[in-house]
Amino acid sequence: MYKIVKKENLSTNIFSMDVLAPLVAQSAQPGQFVIVIADEKGERVPLTICDYDKEKGTVTIVAQSIGCSTKKMAQFNEGEYFHDFVGPLGQPSEYVNEDINELKKKKVLFVAGGVGTAPVYPQARWFHEKGIDVDVIIGAKTKDLIILEDKMRKVAGNLYIATDDGSYGFKGMIPSLIEDLVVNQGKKYDLIVCIGPMIMMKFVCIMTKKLGIKTIVSMNPIMVDGTGMCGACRITVGDETKFACVDGPEFDGHLVDFDEALRRQAQYKNEEAEKNGEHVC
Ligand code: FES
User: Fold this and answer.
1) Which domain covers residue 98, as residue numbers?
2) Mean pLDDT of the chain
3) What does the pLDDT look like over 67-103, one tens digit per residue?
4) HSE-CB for 243 with a 13 A CA cutoff
5) Which of 16, 91, 96, 156 is the right S-S partner for 62, CB 3.0 to 4.6 Å?
């Protein structure tokens, strides 16, 4: 059993929880994820690690209560326990093993869409702790859905906000802001790391391919069981078949077949909707 030591509501449907899981915290690295099982009848919910404190032994997760399982998780409070909390799983971000002096020569832009801001934070913090300034974009539909802005501001060199409706920061979609930064403001980036909804990652990759900037994406949104057994996260990367939960979750975004991944994601959404219609969450 894994104790929830802190719970915070970040926006209307998005919440964060610090969970006491010392062994997971000890070996967690940026880019990895955990599987949360709320109670003995709960489904496996794969969530990217948002933060970890090796001394306190806590791991921070952020989730949006949109499905049956995340709605159930949202009902848990501080002092209560999750049935299971497994991890860290998946491969760490590729730069974790890069030579630090080589990394210092690169200019990195992190792009976070909606709840994807949570997994971007530990990555930006990792760079900050090594004395490397990175730029960060946080994008959302509207101002109320921007999360973790204060925390991100402490670890980002430059923080840019974009909202679709223009209620805060740049008015427009994230790919337009990237184009504005690079083409109009003359920013130069060697690497972009983009985490968020699948459709946003697809259009960011179309833009960064045009601009000639290598882009890493996280295929976490397509995962189901997170163990390499259900096959739900099977994707095509270049001419290879990969499993997001085992080989990833991070891949070269210019090689990912997003249309195939979006089709598979839609298929599972329909099944979940049918299931939710049959059962009371
Ligand atoms: Fe089931 Fe990867 S999530 S195989």
Assistant:
1) 94-218
2) 90
3) 788 888 999 999 999 999 999 999 988 888 888 998 9
4) 13
5) 16
pLDDT more than 90, % of the chain: 64
- For the stretch 157-200, pLDDT in tens is 999 999 999 999 999 999 999 999 999 999 999 999 999 999 99
Residue 158, C-beta contacts closer than 8 angstroms, at least 6 positions apart: 135, 136
Q: What pLDDT score was predicted for residue 280?
A: 39
CATH number at residue 146: 3.40.50.80
CA of 262 to the centre of ligand 1 (A): 15
CB proximity list for 180: less than 8 A, separation 6 or greater: 170
Q: Which amino acid type is present at position 167?
A: S
The answer on 103 and 154 residing in a single domain is yes
Residue 249: inside a domain, yes or no? no
Cα of 226 vs centre of ligand 1, distance in Å, is 4
Nearest to 281 by CA among 126, 66, 129: 66
Does the Cβ of 228 fall within 6 Å of ligand 1?
yes
The number of folded domains in the chain is 2
pLDDT band at 276 (very low <50, low <70, confident <90, very high): low
